[in-house]
Amino acid sequence: MSTSQSESDQSVFEGNGSSRQVSSGVSGVGRKKFACVECRQQKSKCDAHERAPKPCTKCAKKGVPCILKKDFRRTYKRARNEAIEKRFKELTRTLTNLSSEEILKRIEQEQQALLNGQNFTKEKVKHLKRTTPSESSAVYAVSPLIIEGSGNDDVGFTENNGAEGVECSDVLTEEQLKCSPKSLGDIHMSSRDIAELFQEFVTKYHPFLPVVDISKGAERIYTLSPCLFWVILLIGLRRRFGATDLMIRLSNLVKSILAEITISPIIRYTPSEADEPVLNVASVYSVQAFLLYTFWPPLTSSLSADTSWNTIGTAMFQAIRVGLNCAEFSKEYVTANSELINEQVRTWVCCNVVSQIIASSFGFPAYVSFDHTVVNAARENRDNYKHHRIPTTIKQMAQIAHFEYQVISTMNSNPANELGMVASEQKQPLLQVLNQQSSQLEVNLKDSKMDSIRKFLLLVAKVHLLTYYFTDSLSSLKKEFTDVRLMSLSEIESNFETKRGLVRVYNAAIDLLNHSTSMWQRDPTIIKYFPGVFVLNIWQSACIISKLAHSSLSAVLDIDRGKKAYQDAVSLTFNASVLKHDMAYRSSAIMRSIWSMFANMHADWQKGKESQEEKVANDFNLGISIKSRMSVSVFFDCLYILREKCGMAKVRREAVNDEDYDEDDDEDEPLPRSEEPTGAPTRTSSRDRRLSTVKHPEESARKIIKTIPLDPNPINASRGSPGSSLTSPSSQQTEVLSLNEVLTNRSPQDRPDSNVCLGPDTSTSHTHVPSLFTLPQHPRETPTDNLDNKPFNNQESDILQQSPPFLMEHWDNWESDSVWKDVDILMNEFAFNPTV
Questions:
Q1: More confident call, 554 vs 806
Q2: Rounded to whole angstroms, how far apart are CA atoms 301 and 309?
Q3: pLDDT for 120
Q4: Residue 88 has pLDDT above 50, yes or no
Q5: 636: burial class by Cβ within 10 Å (0-12, 13-18, 19+)?
Q6: Which of 93, 281, 379, 644 is 20–30 Å from 576 (CA)?
Q7: Considering just the CA atoms, what is the radius of gyration of the chain in Å?
């Protein structure tokens, strides 16, 4: 054997990170015996200590270096193989759009990470097993270096487990944002516009409903579903300054696409990137588009025009049509289609979540199917569901939605009752059981570190549960039956439990509004991206506070705390408005009227109570007349009372032949001093007016909202020839777009005179926030701004000039015609019987 061979065969010893070569003359006596790296990995007997300095027998036979490393730990090959397999699947998806140099660089990084045995030690694998099996972030967490070198390919499901605040915004890479220019009808989007809108969606909207795998990137999402692609862009345009006109035009086109998918879809059970992008394809991705469209529906001016209830029903039926409800039980090609199965299961869970949220907030029965897939996917630490990549946030939302489903199905499960309500003797025990479940759910979610969005939904569910105490109140009975001296012992006890429940719902509503305000304070822009149903939840909670703060329980309630929360709710809903006269904008004004109305009613009740000879504490304003809307019946009852009171005031004014002021002539004309009620503020002092101090609202309130500009335009049935077009009552042709017209319409690129860029225009997306129950004189961006000292900038001044000065000024007068008409519009044809 040559000298060079002898030197090459000498074994290398490594200890404490330092390496040294052992000469052939060193004796093995007294040396600590331990196996080489290869033998320790294979758990085989090693004779390196006997053959030193030569390599051990096994290493010499295999022709591999015989290395002794003191701190070596065995590598789990199975874990490494699984990681390699999953990374291979990811690379096949992400490397298709890369150049050859980028591919080689990416492969080199992956190889270094996968071949590093330190990433697969026993401790690391055990630690990963203790984490949530189905947590999406753990899929590639077998090797931390893999995630670090992968460009955050799993960014679509990156989560923040911090209980404070909303999860951190995801940031897509340049490769994921890269997309060729796209056109839809007469709308053209450049690559830069698409990247900006996608990033806007990912950072601002995606945390509320993480149903889309955004790690696919814009181009792949378009290939899989152009419908989902354009819905994402439409949502991203909601808060884009200067893009209001573009958003409205794109909304009409997207509406046409969704209509085609609903009526005449092309079904694709297993969509792939090899398929041609088609607009009217129904698949798992089109269901995701409907879910996003439900959470952020097109802007309307009334509740009756809101499309959320319709679109979530379409999403559920379409999900069943494409087989999402049975995706979990697919046994064929499970490994090959694991990614698609994960997509389908996640989407099916979100369908039930969104459907229950919408149903509970609107008071309708829910399109839900809490089957085996949904219930088990919502559970934590389930070994049988490791292959489902469902984010923790969706699991938490599923648990909350399932609890709301239990509340509705429990409290409205009596077919013998015309309203479906359980019997009165069963109501109190059932509410106590559901309260215990609510407390347990809250504990479980806190242990799983829910974020502020999921906490918002939990507080909403708690309010919905406790509002059932309104349906059990005795205040709706006659006076002789509410006299405690004439009640039986069981009735007194039941009345006490009901009032205790009303105190709890008052505090729960305050907690919800305070939590919303704290979210706003941490991130002043988050309220602008709230889903429409979230804004509705804020409005409903504010109605509960206003009703109970002016009831016979006001003496035992913290009125100041409730008033502060109510004031914040007015600012929150106003700041959530996207366009003037949308639902959030109008609700902030109606809330002012509701507070003033209940304050006047409460003052009249107190005067009548003082004039009574018998000093008996009768209940006031604790019951509801409308009980057909389940957990939100109290909200519609408040609107019904407002409409009723405003209608009575209108009749009184007509009876005394009040002068009918013309709106244009009286715009700036002050009320004569002789007609002003005592204590009523004048126009000059209106800046200091607050709802809590308005006892006798002015009788000369102007009409604030004449039309409902954001609601759908009616389409008259054509009376002309069969080929005549559809026209609206105003003789203007209404756009009734078909998908064929969308596809054949010319792109703006082909028309040099067209300009659809995302630059500023005169359309507004106002960001003004009214002062708390005072007239909005200054814009407000954050809750901590100084309203009296903050000057207008040019942009804000222009926006304010487009708003009439009386927009919110006269909403204090709840007896005005404008309030009555606006509430009547809200409740018109809203599918409930106000007489029950």
A1: 554
A2: 16
A3: 55
A4: yes
A5: buried
A6: 644
A7: 33
Q: Taking a C-beta distance cutoff of 8 angstroms, is the pair 454, 396 a contact? A: yes
Between 610 and 559, the higher pLDDT residue: 559
Residue 183: helix, strand or coil by DSSP?
A: strand
Q: Is the pLDDT of residue 55 over 70?
A: yes
Identify whether the C-beta of residue 561 lies closer than 8 Å to the C-beta of residue 510. yes
At residue 25, what is the residue type? G
Spatial contact of 581 and 705, defined as CB atoms under 8 Å apart? yes
Contacts of 404 (CB under 8 A, 6+ apart): 356, 357, 360, 461, 464, 631
Query: Using CA of residue 759, residue 765, residue 771, residue 775, what is the dihedral sign?
Result: positive
Instruction: Please report, for the chain, the start and end positions of each structural domain, with discontinuous segments joined by +.
Output: 3-69, 77-153, 461-661+688-704+806-827
Q: What residues have CB less than 8 Å from 603, skipping those under 6 apart?
A: 695
Contact 301, 248 (CB under 8 A): no
- What residues contact residue 648 under an 8 Å CB cut-off, 6+ apart? none
CATH of domain 3-69: 4.10.240
| Signed CA dihedral, 203, 207, 212, 213: sign only | positive
- Report the candidate in 711, 716, 742 with the shortest Cα–Cα distance to residue 729: 716
Which DSSP letter does residue 600 get? H
Q: Which residues of 67-99 are buried (b: 16+ CB within 10 A; e: fewer)?
A: bbbeebeebbeebbeebbebbeebbeebeeeee
Number of C-beta neighbours around residue 29 at 10 A = 5
CA-CA-CA-CA dihedral for 591, 597, 598, 604, to nearest 10? 170
The whole-number pLDDT of residue 273 equals 87
Task: pLDDT band for 399, please (50, 70, 90 cuts).
Answer: very high
Half-sphere exposure in the Cβ direction for 56 (13 Å, CA)? 21
Question: What is the C-alpha separation between 67 and 36, in angstroms, rounded?
Answer: 5
pLDDT at 436: 95
Mean pLDDT, range 461-466, rounded to an integer: 97
Task: State the Cα–Cα distance between residues 234 and 238, nearest whole angstrom.
Answer: 7
For residue 354, give the H/E element and its range. helix 338-362
Which residues are CB-contacts of 483 (< 8 A; sequence separation ≥ 6)? 616, 618
**Count of CB atoms within 10 A of residue 163's CB?**
14
Least confident segment among 190-204, 613-627, 658-672? 658-672
Cβ atoms of residues 832 and 363 within 8 Å:
yes
CA angle at 628 for the pair 624 and 634, rounded to the nearest 5°: 35
- Give pLDDT, residue 51: 82
Question: Pairing mode, if any, of strands 281-282 and 67-69?
Answer: unpaired
Cβ neighbors of 255 (< 8 A, separation 6 or more) are 298, 737
What 8-state DSSP symbol labels residue 67? Answer: E
Question: Side-chain half-sphere of 416: how many Cα atoms within 13 Å?
Answer: 3
pLDDT computed for residue 110 by the predictor: 67
Tokens of 198: 């996608």
Q: Which amino acid is at 432?
A: Q
Q: What pTM value is reported for the model?
A: 0.67
Please say if the pLDDT value at position 652 is more than 70. Answer: no
Phi, psi values for residue 412, rounded to 5°: -125, 55
In the prediction, which pLDDT does 744 show?
A: 53
Report whether pLDDT(35) > 60: yes
At 235 the three-state DSSP class reads: helix
Question: Tens digits of per-residue pLDDT, 741-752?
Answer: 655 554 444 444
Alpha-carbon span 738 to 260, nearest angstrom: 8
pLDDT tens for residues 442-454?
Answer: 999 988 889 999 9
